[in-house]
Write a structure and sequence with these properties.
Blueprint (H helix, E strand, L loop, with lengths): L7 H22 L2 H5 L4 H13 L11 H18 L6 H33 L4 H14 L1 H11 L3 H27 L7 H11 L3 H9 L6 H16 L1 H20 L11 H14 L5 H24 L12 H27 L1
Length: about 350
């Protein structure tokens, strides 16, 4: 137990150490360069954690490991639950059936495609494929973090998935404005907003793209953010379905006599509950903003802790498979997402 009398001091020191690095990551993310690129403190945190893990980790007292693990597991689940304060059901209703359908189709198709390509075509382990697919299909690094406890993946696999999200999400930030201003996309402001929200990885990147297009009205930005948040809330049912699937697979692999306990990711259920509570508008907006800032910091702590558990030696043998998988999903999001958005907006 991390807070047993013999481990308590080490656990607190480990948590404090993670918190200090997270403060540093938060401050760095506020610099103009990183802010303009839409790089969140979560990404900065895992990068710092990985650098520490592969340079100075041996100098950290071993007793602190319980605090690192607590940050990567328990604090993570708590932060995912309170991520629900970023969403209201009214926002989802605002964007209409078109936004909902684009979100649903792109999430499901990208997740299934990425998992299948990763495992069957590029021969990666299933948990790595699922993590990369969840990051691309839902909401970037936060989705990877939320999926990690369900698949019970190792820290370095989470780091791989986050790095893929950062790489292709950053490419998307520069590509989408060029595609729109060049006239290649031939989309209205609302259609472009739905397209951006339904296909780009991170929330911060979705916010940044419409702002990068000269003369684009607020309708595009609003549609993009609302569609993106619709994708975010879909992570809860996705994780529940994933948990059921993994339990079925384990039972199937274990043979006819095997009994496997169904593990429901309750933090995903609580996440929906918090979003529903937030939809009632009972909490003042300034307090909600304050909660979201704290939640971002807790998510950053989880990312730092995961980074600290990542050693480059564990990456050996993966080769270019993660990049091929993430690239395939990126092409599907850009090209397939365009045609799906146009079709749905035309039909409805």
């Amino acid at each position: 137990m991390p807070f047993s009398p013999t481990k308590r001091n080490g656990t607190f020191m480990g948590i404090a150490f993670v918190a200090i690095i997270s403060i540093t990551a938060s401050l760095l993310s506020e610099t103009s360069t990183l802010k303009n690129l839409g790089i969140s403190p979560l990404v900065v945190g895992i990068v710092i954690g990985i650098i520490f893990a592969n340079t100075l980790h041996h100098k950290m007292p071993s007793s602190w490991e319980t605090g690192i693990t607590f940050s990567a597991k328990k604090i993570l689940r708590f932060a995912i639950v309170f991520y629900g304060f970023r969403i209201t059901f009214q926002q989802i209703a605002e964007v209409g059936l078109e936004g909902f359908l684009v979100s649903l189709i792109m999430l499901a198709s990208t997740f299934i495609l990425g998992t299948w390509l990763g495992t069957k075509v590029f021969k990666m382990e299933e948990d790595t494929s699922i993590l990369i697919a969840s990051g691309a299909s839902v909401c970037g690094a936060a989705a990877v973090l939320a999926t990690e406890p369900v698949v019970k993946a190792e820290e370095h696999k989470t780091a791989i998935a986050v790095s893929m999200v950062v790489l292709f999400g950053t490419i998307a930030m520069f590509l989408y404005p060029v595609l729109h201003t060049s006239g290649i996309l031939d989309m209205t402001a609302r259609e472009f907003g739905i397209y951006v929200g339904g296909t780009i990885h991170e929330v911060a990147q979705v916010v940044a793209v419409p702002a990068s297009v000269p003369g684009l009205d607020a309708e595009a930005a609003n549609a993009a953010v609302i569609v993106k948040m619709t994708r975010v809330i879909m992570i809860a049912p996705m994780l529940i379905v994933l948990g059921i699937y993994l339990s079925y697979q384990a039972k199937k692999t274990g043979g006819a006599g095997a009994t496997v306990k169904l593990v429901i990711p309750w933090f995903a259920v609580y996440f929906i509950g918090v979003a529903g509570f937030n939809s009632l508008n009972l909490v003042p907006l300034d307090i909600v903003n304050w909660i979201n800032q704290i939640d971002t910091f807790l998510l950053t702590m989880a990312m730092v802790a995961l980074g600290i558990g990542t050693r480059f030696a564990k990456f050996k043998g993966l080769g270019l498979a993660p990049i091929y998988t993430a690239l395939s999903m990126f092409i599907w999001l850009v090209v397939g997402g365009y045609f799906i958005t146009k079709f749905i907006c035309y039909t409805f």
